[in-house]
Structure prediction request, 425 residues.
Amino acid sequence: MSTLLKQVLKHQVYPAMGCTEPVAVALCAANAAALHKGEIKKAVVWVDSATFKNGLGVRIPNTEGERGNLLAAALGLLIAKPKLGMEILKGATPALLKEAKFLLEQKAVTIKVKKRKDFYIEVNLLYKDGYKAKAVISGGHTSLNYLEDNGKILIDKKPELEDKGDFKKVLARSSLADLIREAQNADKEDLAYIKKGALMNMRAAKEGAKLKKVGFYLSDLVDKKMLDNNLINSTKILASRAADARMDGIAIPVMSSGESGNQGIVAVLVPYYVGKYLKVKEKTILQSIALSHLLNGYVKAFTGDLAPICGCAIAAGVGASAAIVYQQKGADLKAITLAINNIISDIGGMLCDGAKSGCALKVVSSVDSALRAAFMGINYYGITEVEGFIGESAEKTIQNLSRISTVGMVKVDNTIVDIMKKKNK
Prediction:
């Protein structure tokens, strides 16, 4: 049994409809609102700066193109069905949307930024009859760690004491060889779930093809013969279409990776499509995606759930690149290490400025770099430790990247959030 892989699949790989940060805000609000049926007087939502950043400009599913954490919170309060999980916005109807907009017009729902380094959402509810409720999701998008029902504490636990925290510690202690073995030991249940995610993300790409966004313009460049119609460009078009669909708020789920839908698009869709294109055996393709999920989670175990650097480009790109090498070379540590070094050396400094339509452009850059890095690695060519911040191993390179993100870029998120707040006003 591949225990670590199962934990990663359980906690970080799940269907999500819409951008995962505003969806998590809606889920937290739903947990609080499910405790009491009454007329809401006031709701105060606290989020960490990265969640604020990711929820500001992205469209919300089933809202006719509306954007933002505030609307997501209001809908979560009204849907009040936490069992829907990260697909909670399935419950949004035109009537509830109208009611949610009324709450916002009345300024009954407000959002504030809490200075925290970890993922954090807190919803405080006050009803007109004086009833109070509070819910906190922290340490992960679905981790309900505090629930208070009119003064009675129902849940109060530290996220680091859960198995969720334990598996991240195991991930961080793992070596690249450990993660490869985990992927190779994936059982039938794991592989079936992984395939389900790949097909889910392929459907999202099909929906995104209907939009005149990034995927459309890349395809148009191919039609005009300004770009070649080849594996690299067709993969970029496919992935960008799926990201277009998500960021435009189309009400279709994608399979996430590292608790992010866009990361799921890169980590899952890219190796799946490339493997099929190159006629790799399906079991090998699915094992490679298992490795992709594990490596995406490994990178985030060091950089954090929401980092100043772009996770869908870098963390998921690392996973996708390694997966493609695995498809061609198996458990070749040297080739996989070179691929990881290549992509981190290439796009390791890409900033995250929140979820929005432009994320599809970053997905395109990630795909381009991941494929180039992989095929260089397959041929044993790549960046080594004598250059820049690349380490003597893939693990060390990732840890060096984490240090740059968590120490060197400590002011980046606050600066971006300050800019966004001023625009929001």
